[in-house]
Amino acid sequence: MEATEGSSRVQRGEEILLPEEISSMVLVKMKEIAEAYLGQQVTNAVITVPAYFNDSQRQATKDAGVIAGLNVLRIINEPTAAQCSRPGQRQERRAQLKATAGDTHLGGEDFDNRLVNHFVEEFKRKHKKDISQNKRALRGCVQPVREPREPCPPALKPALKSTPCMRALTLYTSITRARSKSCVPDLFRGTLEPVEKALRDAKMDKSPDP
Q: How far, in Å, are 125, 136, 154 from residue 130 at the CA level?
């Protein structure tokens, strides 16, 4: 639901919750997991956020941490956290992140959808039925598509066995790694622009270190 001032609210029964309160529930659970693992109370925290978060989103995340009972030391970008967690960086305790870039509208789901479309067309050729508008059938195809996305040798043919897509009809098929790549050439090209932007912003080139 939307509040009068334009901000979002979530209604749970008769209770109206702010987004920060919803986020705090996640942080409380994470705090409990950390305490169970460490065997001690956790009070201080560094929270990561997507690099594209603006100031208000970062402040809302910090507020969620406070609601969860945490002393939020810092809010840092996820790419920065990934860099700091690299082997060797934790021992050195120093890391310099020169630039970040990305496309928030390009991710694993885009690749999944292309493969789903491929199998929808294959289903249509085999059974003469179009399931592209059948949401239940499409949902049944997503998980089998994701499983073969794990790294595999080029010669391996991961089997895709979809759940029943149209009543009693089921598609049993497979796809090679090379064929799956041929479904997404533009998506692969789309990953190059953020890399090049990050290099430009960091004033670096693609030449290997001497």
A: 9, 13, 30
Residues 158, 147: Cα–Cα separation, whole Å: 8
Give how far Cα 85 sits from Cα of 43, 48, 91, 96, 134, Å.
21, 12, 10, 12, 43
Q: What is the pLDDT of residues 145-175, one digit of tens each?
A: 776 555 555 544 544 455 555 556 677 777 7
Q: All domains of the chain, ordered by start, with CATH?
A: 10-97 (3.30.420.40), 103-143+170-204 (3.90.640.10)
Specify the amino acid at residue 177.
R
Residue with tokens 């109206």: 16
- Amino acid 149 reads R
Digit-coded pLDDT (tens) for 89-143: 555 556 677 887 878 778 888 888 888 888 888 888 888 888 888 887 777 777 7
